[in-house]
Amino acid sequence: MTNGGFETGNFTGWTTVGTAAVVSGGAHSGTYSARVGGTSPTNGDSSISQTFTVPTGQTLLSFWYQVHCPDTVTYDWATATLQDNTTNTTTTILARICTNSGSWVSTSAGVTAGHSYTLTFISHDDNYPGDPTYTLYDDVALSSPPGNPIVNPSFETGNLTGWTTAGTTAVVSGGAHSGTYSARVGGTSPTSGDSSVKQTF
């Protein structure tokens, strides 16, 4: 993504349609955010969009949005779409919404490395006097999947490091789903009651 936080103070990297501006103050982070729609009533859709290719190792697109919609979703709304130009499919990653809470909300969508995408943020206003609708967008980013918070998840230490055991348990070699080791909960001979392994993370 180019200029995903709009910290250039302009729409470098983005294509705009209708009423849109980069505004200072009240951003989710940094100084600037993108305002799609206007503080005065507008007629129809306003949008910003960007086409990008996902780098190797990155599989998640995320962004923050703040909707200012004093009407109802029947007439005014915010929405966002993600078009996969490689497969020619389009997904609505933010369903039509109209709210006036003033809160920043995050959302995300999975992407495929090497694919080309077009991300479009849309604000729709019916031009009715007294209830202008606009949405702020900020911190648009691609990222790698988060690391696994589980300690010793595949038991490849050969023991139950990181796990709390009760009853009959063991780390065994051979027949693992992957690697060398797996955890056996219970015994190869009869046991009485519960056996378990657990981890808090």
Structural class: mainly beta
Segments where pLDDT lies below 50 for 5+ residues?
A: none
Q: Could you say what the CATH architecture of the largest domain is? A: Sandwich
Helix content: under 10%
Instruction: Give the tally of β-strands.
Output: 14
* Shape call: elongated
* Cα-based radius of gyration, to the nearest Å: 24 Å
Number of helices: 0
Give the rounded overall mean pLDDT: 96
Any overview of this molecule?
The structure is a single chain. The protein has 201 residues and is mainly β. It has two domains: 15-143, Galactose-binding domain-like (Jelly Rolls), CATH 2.60.120; 148-201, no CATH class. The chain is built from no helices and 14 strands. The protein has strands spanning 15-17, 20-24, 32-37, 43-53, 60-68, 77-84, 89-97, 105-110, 116-126, 134-143, 164-166, 169-173, 181-185, 196-198. Strands 1-4-9-6-7 form a five-stranded antiparallel sheet, with no helix packed on it. A hairpin with a 4-residue loop joins strand 6 and strand 7. It is elongated.
